[in-house]
Amino acid sequence: MISNEVKKKKIFIDGPIQSAFIGESIAKHQTKTTIGAHNIFLGQVRNDQIDGKEVVAIEYTAYQEMAEKEIHRIREKAFEKFDLVCLHIYHSLGIVKAGEVCLFVFVSSAHRDASYQASRFIVEELKLNAPIFGKEIFEDDSHQWKVNLY
Hints:
Strand content: 35-45%
Number of domains: 1
Radius of gyration: 17 Å
Helix content: 25-40%
CATH topology: Aldehyde Oxidoreductase, domain 3
CATH architecture: Alpha-Beta Complex
Structural class: alpha+beta
Largest sheet: 8 strands, mixed
CATH class: Alpha Beta
CATH superfamily: Molybdopterin biosynthesis MoaE subunit
Shape: elongated
Order of helices and strands: EHEEEHEEHEE
Distance between the termini: 46 Å
Number of helices: 3
Number of strands: 8
């Protein structure tokens, strides 16, 4: 059976995004000789101090189907706005400890300016529109929903 639906790439990764995965993603692009620039954004969990308590991890959840549609929309809009060759977006689900990577945006273009602008656009759109939520977990095992600051 042939599907008319375009196969969408995996966006969500269980737990932290590992450095080996990031490195492999970069290595796969060495054969794409029309690329002159890559811009990589890595979002990392900070151990913020809130009301005298230290954040030791964030537990990420999402309305996955809705988030995938929104991220696909953001991705398509980035291709429309900027002259890109390639674009990948990955976000963690589950528990990610302080110091670990939770967001990986990898933008490739012929020239650096497009990759810079697209990367910023994508990260800001994700923060504003993607239904992905983080629960900050404190050292005393208490928790609260994260508020995104810009």
